[in-house]
Amino acid sequence: MLTGMWRAGTPLASHHWDGCEPDMVILSKGLGAWYTGVGAVLVSPDIAPFIRHEDADPLPAMGTMATHPLMAAACLGVLDELEAMDFTAFSERAEHLGQAMKSLNGVGPVQDISGLGFLYGVEVTSGQLWPVMKAAEEQGVFFYPFTGAGDPKSEGLVVAPPLTSSDDDIDFLITALSSALDAVGRTADRTVGRHPTRCPERPCVTHSNSSTNH
Q: What is the C-alpha to C-alpha distance for residues 186 and 113, in angstroms, rounded to an integer?
């Protein structure tokens, strides 16, 4: 749901790959530009007959929040704005964001950065997500956190600026994120390099592959 409505740089993320024709697409969030909660399900012509035919029960499309005039108005407004967008300038800003994000790969606690268009994920070292979030907030930017599976669990943040962002907005975002990552990286370096408490019972020997004295 996060990858539709030009968020990934194209109308749908699948448009990045020739021949990729999804059978079903679920749209939400961006469809209402956060002004109202709304979602939509797009079904390919090949699949639609299996869902809607004379022997099938009708789809439950008349719930409390369905066919709501306010939602429809928000969706139409969003689609009008998207159609009026300068796609050349949009693509250039997306490229600018992508290059800037890739330049942060390996900075401080960053383990990996991936994404397309106006949507990027930044994976950080385990235990460093909230320090990065706090440091970024001090720079005036709030990011959406995520946690995954594994041991240790993967964790990171989502970079998804508004599609209407200007070059200055993107530069501000990148500067804030870069500063936050640098600050957390310096703190981690000082913690690792701190001289440990001396062992009182025997002389300490420092091993080159460890920060702990024995």
A: 20
